[in-house]
Amino acid sequence: MAEGLQDLKDHLMATNDAFQRLATEHQGYKEKLQQLASKPYLTDQEQFEEARMKKLKLHLKDQMEAIMQEHRKHAQSV
Fold this sequence. Notes:
By secondary structure, this protein is mostly helical. The chain contains three helices and no strands.
């Protein structure tokens, strides 16, 4: 199952501009959050930014999932 999911993501990265843009943004937030997580202490501003980025990252993930669901639905009807 996980292999099929990765295959779908790879396919969409290669063929769907919207999915590719969302995945790139998602990866960017993931990297920024990892940088914040590596700090021993976060300022109030950094804590606020961390919470904001987590919400944005989750929203992007939801949008990517919607594209994958739509692709699966379309693939099953063809």
